[in-house]
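PROTEIN DESIGN WORKSHEET
SECTION A - STRUCTURE
LENGTH: 549
TOKENS:
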């Protein structure tokens, strides 16, 4: 009952009436006096918006507001971010659709100002030029897609079990639940970007009675929970369409100072369609980006019929004190469930190594690529269930660790391996990999070993969890294009040599790798005509059972 009351309270806090002053999280104050409609900036940086009663009535009758209604010039030179933010703030207050002005080019300079989107938005064919060469706050998003519903602390949950079906709570409606145990460390990274790990966490959806959506299950045992948060989920779908965005790249030093000059999606049930993002002005150095589309702390997100751009690869010094290639992303998914990319592509060559892989994800579940042409799929800190179908992936291929089922079908993969189980996080997949009706086409340069599944595991590093080889791997109707290999090429292998030191029983793992695995092969062919073998290190995989049909 108390959560229902809280829900009603939060709802009414988000609604204002004509003439009432509003100062929500986006730091705007909206008034309606007889003065003309105008947008100004207060000394503290807040937007002060006055909308005349006549204009209020007009906009409400139309059901639509445009950026030019609040002073946007659209000449590609005048900074229009205040007008853009003001338009959305007023639209949010009255539940109006926002439309960009056709033929306009909105320049967005370096001012720290974020436009909050809470209503349907049609960017149309308008252009947006985002200048990152001189900014006030690299962490400030350009747009945040947000909900009127507010998170609240969830009491009474002291522990959880993997695959638990219900939690003992009563909620106002479906909620996205995030739990953490700060006393346990997971994802203790190994290698040139080594770190001390992250606190144990999980994210899942429950209905008003606490029933867990088992399509995105709880994946960890929690002996203790130090924090639990519930975020009510909007029942309607918010739609964002169109837009031709161009980022003028930053000129900062090549360090891990990620830029978030982006569209951040923080609301569940969102469809983004028909957007384009391009990048200009990249030189011989620059700071990385954390995703022009950055999806986080939400569920049921669809991004379709859109075009993105890979960022240039730069080098920096990693935490181990040695040079590393620095990741920079146009798409990023963090702590999100049921996120699909449908019929999407990128502007630059997916096989050009000058550009970093386009997508990264962490702590997410049920990620889908369908009919996409991208340079990479990547799950850093785990994914539970992922599907890649009808797609083509370029030089960085498929990189993942996690659990559940990884499905790859009707696709062409051009990475160095068909699936790379990331060694910096333990080359672990606790579950199943299914590969059907695919072509594996490693790069044209001659490789000493062509492997379907790559990874590395010494057994001497504590990642904070037990690491697993996939318990079941099914490969059906796979063609391996391995024609361009050296004369001493022995043929492809299922597994790369994960540990060159483990050649007999004398090698001892401090943190044993669970290698109980079954492999089912049907109609696997090679361009070279050579047979598919288990590994160049057969001892390490001696307990793996291979079944052929």
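SECTION B - SEQUENCE
RESIDUE ASSIGNMENT:
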């Amino acid at each position: 009952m108390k959560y229902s009351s809280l829900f009603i309270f939060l709802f009414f806090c988000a609604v204002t009436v004509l003439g009432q002053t509003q100062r929500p999280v986006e730091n705007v104050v909206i008034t309606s006096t007889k003065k003309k409609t105008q947008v100004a900036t207060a000394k503290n940086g807040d937007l002060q918006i006055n909308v005349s009663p006549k204009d209020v009535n007009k906009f409400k009758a139309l059901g639509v507001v445009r950026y030019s209604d609040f002073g946007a010039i659209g000449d590609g030179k005048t900074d229009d971010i205040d007008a853009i933010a003001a338009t959305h703030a007023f639209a949010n207050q009255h539940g109006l659709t926002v439309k960009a002005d056709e033929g306009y080019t909105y320049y967005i300079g370096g001012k720290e100002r974020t436009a909050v989107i809470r209503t349907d938005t049609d960017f149309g064919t308008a252009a947006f030029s985002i200048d990152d060469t001189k900014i006030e706050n690299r962490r400030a998003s350009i747009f945040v897609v947000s909900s009127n519903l507010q998170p609240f602390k969830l009491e009474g949950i002291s522990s959880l079990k993997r695959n638990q079906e219900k939690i003992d709570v009563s909620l106002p409606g479906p909620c996205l639940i995030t739990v953490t145990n700060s006393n346990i460390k997971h994802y203790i990274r190994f290698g040139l970007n080594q770190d001390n790990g992250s606190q144990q966490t999980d994210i899942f959806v429950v209905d008003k009675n606490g029933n867990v959506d088992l399509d995105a299950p709880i994946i960890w045992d929690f002996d203790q929970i130090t924090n639990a948060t519930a975020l009510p989920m909007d029942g309607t779908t918010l739609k964002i369409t169109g837009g031709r965005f161009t980022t003028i790249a930053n000129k900062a030093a090549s360090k891990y100072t990620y830029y978030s000059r982006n569209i951040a999606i923080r609301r569940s049930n969102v469809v983004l369609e028909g957007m384009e993002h391009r990048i200009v002005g990249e030189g011989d150095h620059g700071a990385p980006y954390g995703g022009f589309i950055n999806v986080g702390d939400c569920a049921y997100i669809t991004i379709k019929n859109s075009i993105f751009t890979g960022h240039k690869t730069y080098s920096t010094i990693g935490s181990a004190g040695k040079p590393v290639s620095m990741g920079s992303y146009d798409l990023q998914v963090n702590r999100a469930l049921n996120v699909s990319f449908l019929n999407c592509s990128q502007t630059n060559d997916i096989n050009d190594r000058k550009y970093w892989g386009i997508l990264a994800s962490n702590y997410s579940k049920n990620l889908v690529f369908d009919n996409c042409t991208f340079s990479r799929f990547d799950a850093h800190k785990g994914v539970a269930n992922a599907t890649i179908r009808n797609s083509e992936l370029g030089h960085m291929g498929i990189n993942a660790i996690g659990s559940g089922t990884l499905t790859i079908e009707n696709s062409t993969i051009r990475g160095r391996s068909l699936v790379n189980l990331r060694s910096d996080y333990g080359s672990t997949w606790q579950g199943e990999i299914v590969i059907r009706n695919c072509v594996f086409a490693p790069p044209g340069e001659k490789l000493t070993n062509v492997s379907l599944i790559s990874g590395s595991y010494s057994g001497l590093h504590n990642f904070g969890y037990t690491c697993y080889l996939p318990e079941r791997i099914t490969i059906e109707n796979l063609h391996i294009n391995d024609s361009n290999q050296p004369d001493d090429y022995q043929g492809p292998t299922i597994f790369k040599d994960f540990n060159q030191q483990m050649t007999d029983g004398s090698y001892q793992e401090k943190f044993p790798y669970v290698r109980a695995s079954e492999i089912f092969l049907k109609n696997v062919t090679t361009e070279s005509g050579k047979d598919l073998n288990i590994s160049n290190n057969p001892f390490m995989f001696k307990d793996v059972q291979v079944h052929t049909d």
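SECTION C - NOTES
The helical segments are 2-13, 53-62, 81-94.
The longest helix spans residues 81-94.
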